Amino acid sequence: MNKTIRVAMILAVSAGSILAHTAPASAQWRDGPARWDDRRGPPPPPPRRHHRDRDTGKVIAGGLAAGVIGGLIGGALANGNNNGPRYIEEPPPPRCWFEDRRVQNAYDGGWHYENVRVCN
Length: 120
Description:
Blueprint: H1 2-19, H2 58-79, E1 96-104, E2 111-119
Antiparallel strand pairs: 1-2
Helix pairs in contact: 1-2
Signal peptide: 1-22
Transmembrane segments: 59-78
Region (Disordered): 25-57
């Protein structure tokens, strides 16, 4: 449930930053229908046209950078604590002790007792 809410929030913020587009505001004085006559003077000049000669792609680059950063943050939040260090306890050392055991003598084939280390 917690991951679902996080992912939904990340998607909402990402979609809002990608899809948000503002248009320039147009503040014109209107008094009734658009009609111009001699009482008000000549009509206003036509709006200045903005050419795309100064468009260097900053908006696109900013959107891509925001998407990459949002993706990194979203991936880190969705992944949670699954990639942190894991501390695993080592198994306890085997229990060992010494016993007197009968072993075969390698030189003459006889038998004798030796103190032998025995572990679980």
